[in-house]
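Model it.
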Amino acid sequence: MWGAPSMFGQARPSSGKGQAKMNLELKLTIANTRITGGESIAVKLQALNRGPEPLTLETGPGNSIVYELRNLEGGGASRVSRLGYSEGLREGRPTKPLPSRIKTLAPGDAHTFSDDLAQFAMYTIHAGEYRVTAILEGASPRVVSNPVTVEVKAPKVHAMNALYCPYSESTSCMYDHTGDDGSGFILQRDAGYLFPHVGTFRRLAALGASKSAPQLAQSIHTEPRLEERWYLWMEGRRAGAFQSSGASVTSLGPSIAAPMLAATGFQSTSDKAVFWCAGLLNGASHAQKIEVSQGGITYGPPAALGASKPANLLACELGESHSGFALIWRDGHAIYKRQFGPNGMPRNGGEVKLYESQGAEILCMEMNPIPDDPAHLHALVAPHGSAAKLRYLRIPLDPKGMVETRELDPPTEKCSAWAITAVLPSPLVVVALGEDQLMFTHAGVRGADWEELLEVPPSIQHLKIVANERRFWAAVWIDPEVGFGSRMDPAYVR
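Modeled.
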């Protein structure tokens, strides 16, 4: 079940006559009945008093309206409600009773509820065709709305981006979707850090028809009290940026060929953000700074990176006064960096090799975009041999620093995807995708065992961890059959 309400606050005659017959009509309207999994299912529910007597109706978060979603393909029915959603947010914490809002409906008067079934579900509703009805629990006689059929389709996703922003204290996620007609769009949502699974995705940018997969990036706030966030996409030779308020700009792509976006941009004011990309120019690796504002997208001059060919491009801001940036990337079994000034021009010294794995596979690497001083890159390395231990590395961006290594026993089953955290003092967590489950362990605890996080199909994609400095982490991913998925640290105490 996605949510189950208590039975209280039902409509009743206000005359005090227990035998008075209630005559309440529920009319359900859903404007968008063809949605993508995780996308908003906004409903309007009109409660109309058709009787001769006034009725009192609970309209607050404790109301007794329940929405039933019955799978027309034989998958049973689930129920969601504002009450179940409100109680789910409060679970495990001491709370006050939910506020009551009583409204009296005179004969012929109506009250309209505006709800979101995808939000109430708290987890992505599976693909399928559903008959949706609204029910007033506890009413006598039973009050049920007209049915509305809703079709939920699994998203066709090429790219997903997720980050935790410490200044806004929210987890922001975005992914693309390609419809049956070949047109694409981007969905995005913000959620409080305690509840990365809460909220619904909104369509914020149209990609149009294209044969190439987009790349996605979003900005992290580097100053407090910013009201907007910039999101950037690149697809072939096109680029676009948009804000959650709906402002958007489009442009041709950068001058370098085959550009690769760093997943995180940097935003110190509400109206402007800086992103980075890397690619080829005349056969050599170059980087370009990208500035986004409501005035458009502008690119800095290409800057040579060095002889390496970047993969897994990461970016971080240097210094507390926005004194510059560092780009970090992998090329084969080596990890490199290069520093840039705030104007996007490279600083002296060229590329610097931070680490050489000596032939071991670099499974994944992460960087806190706003790192502590001294700054460190985090990486997970798998030496050759089935009995070899994994190595979790903290690699200083200062090449004079010492690389910290922690050995981990490998999981008992073969794994196809990995994710790590890069935020301290939050736990150093490793999540691995096994044959039919996600597993996790703590790299900061010697001898820590692998624990089951959640049963999932092996086909999930884009596995990532979002984390903050207050010992919170959650795994997020895309399930091709369902959509966005997430799982919080099961031991986290809110």
